[in-house]
Amino acid sequence: MRFIITQGRVFFMAALMAAVLMLGCGGDDGGGVWVDTNNPGNGGNGGSGETVALGGKTWMAKNLNIQTADSWCYGEGGPVYDAGHSGETITSSEVQANCAKYGRLYTWSAARSACPLAGTGWRLPTRADWDALAQAAGGRRYEDNWPDWHDWELAGRNLKSTSGWNWNDGDNASGNGTDTYGFSALPGGRCHGSHFGNAGLYGHWWAAEEYGSDDAYFRYVHYDDDGLYEYAFAKSLAYSVRCVRD
């Protein structure tokens, strides 16, 4: 598990390490999500499954919402910690509304298995796929962090949705992005040890590569910064998923 703290990673790690002190996620369960429209029993609800072409690949323009083992709606079966909650459980209707808005949260292994269920050619994006996306979205490399961490200035702002992100009190400014390219990144939060947190504040998306035997890479964006960052953490955490195809 890596513990290198740089730039926007400082704030992200503070929130994530609080979650690590807690003890897989809640129980099992479209808006802003990609669903399996051919299999309603697998989470499909007739959604349109929009895509966006960036960095030479076709990306899902919504978070994945295909029900699999080791995937959860935000708040499903565990306490919630975010700007509007301080450890309470939420209602079933709230849980379903979160799934419709944010899609499901997947462990790394579940994410790898879920993308092919969306159809022929869909897969979990590699680090190189994420880098090509960031560059195509107007990102500039944080050179000081390479090659350890593939962080990009400005890409987060250009990929974030124009609504749904918390207000940035520090800068007295909206946390929303410009969604310049139609990627519509949403702050779906995360699940760790049956606790859910950070919806409205952070969006996290898995990458295909492992970092050692226990961890894997992911990318994240937060409400009070314009970057798209990379880190590696436990495969057992549950994050959002965007699939890609060639």
Describe this protein's structure.
The protein has 246 residues and is of the alpha+beta class. The chain has one domain. 20% of the residues lie in helices and 23% in strands. The chain has helices at residues 9-20, 92-102, 108-117, 127-136, 155-159; strands spanning 33-34, 51-54, 57-60, 63-64, 71-72, 80-82, 85-86, 105-106, 140-141, 152-153, 190-192, 195-197, 202-211, 215-222, 229-234, 244-245. The strands form six sheets. The chain has a four-stranded mixed sheet, with no helix packed on it. The radius of gyration is 16 Å and the shape is globular.
Key descriptive features of the protein:
16 strands, three-stranded antiparallel beta sheet, alpha+beta, 20% helix, 246 residues, globular, four-stranded mixed beta sheet, disordered N terminus
Provide a brief overview of the structure.
By secondary structure, the protein is an alpha+beta fold. The chain has 5 helices and 16 strands.
**Biggest pleated-sheet summary:** 4 strands, mixed
Helix proportion? 10-25%
Parts with pLDDT < 50 across at least 5 consecutive residues? 1-7, 10-23, 38-48
> What is the chain-wise order of helices and strands?
HEEEEEEEHEHHEEHEEEEEE
Shape: globular
Gyration radius over CA: 16 Å
Mean pLDDT over the full residue set:
86
Task: Please write out the topology.
Elements: H1 9-20, E1 33-34, E2 51-54, E3 57-60, E4 63-64, E5 71-72, E6 80-82, E7 85-86, H2 92-102, E8 105-106, H3 108-117, H4 127-136, E9 140-141, E10 152-153, H5 155-159, E11 190-192, E12 195-197, E13 202-211, E14 215-222, E15 229-234, E16 244-245
Parallel strand pairs: 1-4, 6-12
Antiparallel strand pairs: 2-3, 3-16, 5-8, 6-7, 9-10, 11-12, 13-14, 14-15
